[in-house]
Amino acid sequence: MVQDFMNKVPLFLDSRSSEALLNVVVSILVIAFISHQVLSLFFVSSKKDDREILITKDVKPRRDRACGDDSSIADLHEHIFKEKEVLYHIPHMHEREMLRASQYFYEQMKMRRSCSPSAGNAQPWKFCIVVDDNRKAEIRSLIEADEKDNHVQRKGEGSEWVMGISQLQQTWRRPYLTDAPLLLVVCHEIFTSVEDKTVRLFHYNQISTAIAVGMLVSAIQYVGLSTVVTSPLNAGSRISRLLRRPDNECVMLLLPLGYASADALVPDFKRKPIESFTNIY
To answer: Which residues of 52-86 are buried (b: 16+ CB within 10 A; e: fewer)?
Structure first.
């Protein structure tokens, strides 16, 4: 019996040794895996911090460059998508032809009795024609200051807003506001006075004015002139004060009006097919 026991002891020890060795190997592998993960996190965090430091150091030079007259949105952001530009061409009309075309357009639109429709026939629009060069320059300065604030400070570098409009414009400069001989400032009424009482307008005044602007843009194109529909952004109240408009009017849009330059370029946009925005029931 003793001999049998002595013969089984080595087998028992070998089995225990193999199990212990396996446990040691597994433990080493687990420790190695955990160490690898910890080191990976450390190095990734370190690289991220390095990138943030580089970006932080680069922000100020980019903003300084953004304040220049010739600065471009493309200089501030990477991976900018830009549309191909094509030469803008519109047939040139002489003054007599323009007057004849404008009269014909008016007669056609007048056949619907009210030209541009408005809710409740409120006709809440007001068109202010600016011809004075100094006032045009002041309006341009207000628009550009607010536009620059949008591009650099308020929206921030790399924002989706900047990326979205980069295909339409490369700078916040608006030279056409002063280059055009006429600048139409479109306003709409926000309240009116009835028997010395202030009554707020709820007749869809913005929609009515927008329809009028759409018809006006069509008329401008029809007579051979050009315009660029421009938003006043947050400068509307300052433009209104500059033009001494009453408190019941709000600046909605700006339309510089004149002939397009011979070398004018525009984005080569493709319009949606009519099937994509119409449904027949």
So the answer is: eeeeeeeeeeeeeebeeeebbbeebbeeeeeeeee
Distance CA 39, CA 276 (A): 53
CA 70 to chain CA mean position, Å: 20
- Which tokens is 152 given? 């650099």
| Pick from 49-53, 232-236, 252-256: least confident | 49-53
Closest CA to 185 of 204, 165, 213: 213
CA 222, 228, 234, 235 dihedral sign is negative
Instruction: Give the phi and the psi of residue 222 in degrees, each rounded to 5.
Output: -65, -30
Better-scored residue on pLDDT, 16 or 117: 117
* Whether the predicted pLDDT of 31 surpasses 50: yes
Q: What six digits make up the tokens of 173?
A: 């400069």
> Contact 66/151 with Cβ under 8 angstroms?
yes
Question: In the chain, where does DSSP find H-type helix?
Answer: 2-66, 73-76, 95-110, 133-148, 160-165, 176-179, 205-222, 236-242
The pair of structure tokens assigned to 266 is 């525009």
Residue of higher predicted confidence among 172 and 238: 238
Which residues lie closer than 8 Å to 235 by C-beta, 6 or more apart? Answer: 142, 143, 145, 146
- The whole-angstrom separation of Cα 157 and Cα 76 is 7
